[in-house]
Amino acid sequence: MEKLLLGLTLIFIVTYLWYVSLVKKRNTALEALSGIDVQLTKRADLVPNILKIAKRFMEHEKSLLTEITELRTQLSHNYNKADPSAVKEHLVQAERLNDKMSTLMVNVENYPELKSDNTMLQAMQTYNEVEAHISAARRFYNSAVSELNTAVEIFPGSIIASMASIKVMPFYEVSEAAKAPVDAAEYL
Fold first, then answer.
1. For the chain, what is the HEC assignment?
2. pTM above threshold 0.85
3. What pLDDT, on the 0 to 100 scale, is given for residue 181?
C-alpha cells in the first residue's frame, strides 16, 4: 500500500511539474506575441505620418496608399491571443502591411522630391528601425513558440496540454513576397 501511495504521489508530482512547464512555455510565447504587438503598434502609428508625407507627392499611387490605410485599420483590431487561428490571421495581416509598405518605400525612389524630403527621410529611417525591432521580436516569438509546440506535441505533454487546453501556436512567417529573390534590374 505504501508503494502504491508513493507511486501515485510521484506520478502526481511529475504531472504537476510538466503542467507548470507547459504553462511557463505558453506564457513566454504570449509574452513574445505581446512584444510583436508593441512593435506592430509602433509601425502602425508611423504609417499615417508616412502616408501624409507621401500623398503630397505621389498622386499616381493612391490605390497603394488606400490599401495600406485599410490594412493598418484591420491590423489595429483586437484579436484573441488564446486562439491560434486568430493569432495566425493577425500575423498574416501584419506581413501584408509590411509587403505594401515595402512597395511604398520602393516607389518613393521614383519621386526625387519625396526621396529628398527631410521629413520623409526621417520617417523612413524610423520605419526601418521599427522593422528591425519587429524582426528581433519575431525571432524571440518563434523561439518561444518552438519550445511550446515541442512540449505540447510530445508525450506526455500532449495529454497534459489537452487536459489544460494548452494549444500549439502558429509561427510568425514572412510572406512569399519577402522570400522571393530580388531582381536588381528593377532598381537600376
1. CHHHHHHHHHHHHHHHHHHHHHHHHHHHHHHHHHHHHHHHHHHHHHHHHHHHHHHCCCHHHHHHHHHHHHHHHHHCCCCCCCCHHHHHHHHHHHHHHHHHHHHHHHHHCCCHHHHCCHHHHHHHHHHHHHHHHHHHHHHHHHHHHHHHHHHHHCCCHHHHHHHHCCCCCCCCCCCHHHHCCCCHHHHC
2. no
3. 58
